[in-house]
Write a structure and sequence with these properties.
Elements: E1 6-11, H1 17-29, E2 33-38, H2 48-55, H3 74-80, E3 83-89, H4 91-98, H5 105-112, E4 117-121, H6 125-128, H7 131-142, E5 146-147, E6 151-154, E7 160-164, H8 168-181, E8 189-194, E9 199-200, E10 206-207, H9 214-225, E11 229-234, E12 247-250, H10 254-264, E13 270-273, E14 280-282, E15 301-303, H11 307-314, E16 320-327, H12 331-341, E17 346-351, E18 363-364, E19 366-370, E20 375-377, E21 381-382, H13 383-397
Parallel strand pairs: 1-2, 1-3, 3-4, 4-5, 8-11, 8-13, 11-12, 13-16, 16-17
Antiparallel strand pairs: 6-7, 9-10, 14-15, 17-19, 18-21, 19-20
Bound molecules: cytidine-5'-triphosphate (CTP).
Length: about 400
């Protein structure tokens, strides 16, 4: 979620500085570039070596490099950052920030940075509830500094109260939410089905199909990039999840996929059924491997639950339901009929007649038909671009 984002992380002199090491790890794991700034006092609580090793960058603390005399430009550091977070922020540094003092590199950078600033205060309970600290925090809040409130708990003094720095995982969540907030699907929950299903005939054989899952996985990637929370119900596929933020549920058969969709659809705002679900499944699954004793073998199949239709019957009018259709004749007419029969808001029509479109390709050519019968034919594009087109359409329907 923080891929390529430049985060300036300021560390001031409080015992909670030991938690900053973990915060850097979390930021780095989320894909961010982290530049650490330390106040001179903070080095008594955690070493610059620890933080530079974790951030994979030199840590800055002085206005100039003590060896080379080179200027550590606070102006350049502020300009580089997408956000500046100070964690922990002590009462002393908060007071200086509120009054425009800049007697160290971290504070000078704060004064020159134009990016959003977050602080995670950490101090003893009496310092936190002191009228001056309250006043300083109010002042910072008023000028647009984001305050990640301290938590109640055991403090370094042995006292119990409010003053503990927020946990690194929660700070990470605040920062991710901040970056998501400007995105078009922020706060939306998206449920996507992808891939084929396997219907077991006996312990070693199944009925499957050629779906690779690529289209559904690209949709999941795009939804994450657009700020959504994503649940991906995937049939058997070799694909790896495009993001760690995706809640992935692996299933095998149409029945299992149906079960997981029924378990998860209620909390979704947008439901996209990109999976190629088997329409039929063997009536009986042989307990042992079938032997080739006869010239002919007949396997009796029964219809599976049409998952898309079943959700179309129960969805609320706040939920958007999107289905796929693969047609080989009378394509638009059949797709429109499917859209209305299954009570969809949008149908994505694939045609097997189009070169480069369909199951195993990295490209696809689709036609989008919405519930108002508006038909939009798209060019042959990468599945990633098709996913963008589909979400742009969905956003216009929201
Ligand atoms: N689908 C589903 N459950 C099934 C079969 C299909 O949810 N048991 C969904 C697919 O995920 C897709 C849509 O239905 O979004 C279209 O599937 P398709 O096979 O084209 O449509 P059918 O309704 O099965 O119609 P037909 O095969 O007769 O064209």
């Amino acid at each position: 979620m923080l891929s390529g984002k430049n985060i300036l992380l300021g560390v001031t002199g409080g015992i909670a500085a030991y938690k900053t090491a973990n915060l850097i790890r979390l930021f780095k794991k989320s894909g961010a570039n982290v530049q650490v700034l330390m106040t001179p006092h903070s080095k008594q609580f955690i070493t610059p070596l620890t933080l530079s090793t974790l951030s994979e960058k030199p840590v800055y603390s002085d206005f100039s490099d003590v060896n080379t005399g080179e200027w550590n430009s606070h102006v350049g550091l502020g300009a580089w950052a997408a956000i500046f977070i100070i964690a922990p922020a002590t009462a002393n540094s908060i007071a200086k920030m509120a009054n425009g003092l800049c007697d160290n590199l971290l504070l000078a950078t704060y004064l020159s940075a134009k990016c959003p600033v977050f602080i995670a205060p950490a101090m003893d309970l009496d310092m936190y509830r002191h009228a001056t600290t309250k006043e300083n925090l109010k002042k910072l809040l008023k000028i647009g500094v984001h305050i990640i409130d301290a938590q109640v708990g055991e403090l370094a003094s042995g006292l119990v109260g409010k003053g503990r720095m927020e946990e690194p995982e929660a700070i990470l969540a605040v920062i991710i939410d901040y970056f998501k907030s400007g995105l078009p699907l922020a706060g939306k929950k998206v449920l996507i089905t992808a891939g084929p299903t396997y219907e077991q005939i006996d312990p070693v054989r199944f009925i499957g199909n050629n779906s690779s899952g690529k289209m559904g996985f690209e949709l999941a990637r795009k939804a994450i990039e657009m700020g959504a929370n994503v649940t991906l119900i995937a049939g058997p596929t070799k694909l790896t999840s495009p993001s760690n933020s995706i809640q992935r549920i692996d299933v095998k058969s149409a029945a299992e996929m149906n079960q997981e969709v029924q378990n998860n659809y209620k909390k979704a705002d947008i439901i996209i059924m990109a999976a190629a679900v088997a329409d039929y499944t063997p009536l009986v699954v042989a307990r042992n491997k079938l032997k080739k004793t006869e010239k002919e073998l007949q396997i009796q199949l029964i219809a599976t639950q049409d998952i898309l239709s079943s959700i179309g019957q129960v969805k609320s009018n706040k939920q958007l339901l999107i289905g796929f259709a693969l047609e080989t004749s009378n394509e638009i007419k059949n797709a429109k009929e499917k859209l209305s029969r299954k009570n969809l808001d949008l149908i994505v029509l694939n045609s097997l007649n189009d070169k480069g479109a369909g199951f195993e390709y990295d490209t696809n050519k689709v036609t989008l038909i919405d519930k108002n019968n508006k038909v939009e034919k798209c060019e042959l594009k990468s599945k990633s671009e098709v996913a963008s087109d589909i979400f742009n359409k969905i956003i216009s329907l929201l």
